[in-house]
Automatic annotation (TrEMBL), chain A:
GO BP, sorted A to Z: regulation of DNA-templated transcription; regulation of growth
One Pfam family, short name: bHLH_ILI
Source domain of life: Eukaryota
GO MF term set: protein dimerization activity
Sorted UniProt keywords: Coiled coil, Growth regulation, Transcription, Transcription regulation
Sections of the chain in a coiled coil: 49-76
Domain named BHLH: residues: 5-59
Name of the featured protein: Transcription factor ILI6
UniProt keyword Transferase present: no
From TrEMBL, chain B:
Transmembrane annotation, as ranges: none
Cleavable signal peptide: none
Subcellular location: Nucleus
Domain IBH1-like N-terminal: 25-79
Single biological process term from Gene Ontology: regulation of DNA-templated transcription
CDD domains in UniProt: bHLH_AtIBH1_like
Protein known as: Transcription factor IBH1-like protein
Entry GO CC: nucleus
Domain of life: Eukaryota
Swiss-Prot/TrEMBL keywords: Nucleus, Transcription, Transcription regulation
Length: 92, 155
């Protein structure tokens, strides 16, 4: 890392190229449900970040909802009959 | 206990061994919660336990490989300790303030993303994007897992 000292005098962003950042942003875009089908370069990185934030918030909310439903179902369900169904559904 | 290493045929190419680890963690946690049901618990208490189990299994599966999973594990343990000592009241957020490493060239949206991804405050922008992608994938797996459990239980 002999070049580290000389590089640190430059701005921080030159260490990581814009190309790398664009690559990461496009990888993120691939994960999003809506923009995946469009898949064009016209989607700006700001838009991708916004969509990612919304997606994460949605997923958090879904985890909360599903936790609630699982809590209800665990109380009332008869475990022995559902075991086979569960194991099958998980590993398929 | 007889430990066998076997691989079963995988018809679904999106299904990785990480996914089954995550499923196992979560199922074990659910079983523990179910066994402890001899003590009367309110529905909201159970919901919180299951939610805790969900995020735990996500974090344990990625383990120490990811910054977000390390941060999440720390956060979960802190909350557990505080709750055990009855110090964690509803709706109070204990925030450990660290200066956010945001460069002036970054888009403003990154601030929200930093808040959403565990441990995001102290990440460099480049790492934040990478960690966010991994976090999203893990979250999605967890949601799919819980959905299929709900479906299995309600049939």
């Amino acid at each position: 890392m002999s070049s580290w000292r000389s590089r640190s005098r430059q701005s921080n962003t030159s260490r990581i190229s814009d190309e790398q950042i664009n690559d990461l942003v496009s990888k993120l875009q691939m994960l999003l449900p809506e923009t995946r089908t469009r898949n064009n370069d016209r989607v700006s990185s700001a838009k991708v970040l916004q969509e990612t934030c919304n997606y994460i918030k949605n997923l958090h909310r879904e985890v909360d909802d599903l936790s609630e439903r699982l809590a209800e179902l665990l109380e009332t369900t008869d475990m022995s009959s559902s075991q086979a169904a569960i194991i099958r559904s998980l590993f398929m | 206990m007889n430990r066998k290493n076997y691989t079963h045929p995988n018809p679904n190419p999106n299904y990785t061994s990480n996914n089954s680890m995550q499923s196992l963690h979560f199922i074990q946690a659910l079983a523990r919660i179910n066994r402890a049901a001899s003590k009367p618990t309110t529905p909201s208490c159970r919901t919180k336990q299951i939610r805790h189990a969900a995020y735990s299994s996500m974090a344990y599966t990625s383990g120490s490989r990811r910054k977000w999973s390390r941060a999440l594990l720390i956060r979960l343990r802190q909350r557990q300790r505080l709750r055990a000592r009855r110090l964690l009241t509803v709706r109070r957020r204990v925030r450990i303030v660290t200066p956010a490493m945001s460069l002036p060239e970054e888009p403003a949206r990154a601030e929200t993303l930093r808040r959403l991804v565990p441990g995001g405050r102290s990440m460099e922008y480049c790492n934040l994007l990478e960690e966010a992608a991994d976090y999203v994938q893990c979250l999605r797996t967890q949601v799919q897992l819980m959905q299929s459990l709900v479906d299995a239980f309600s049939s």
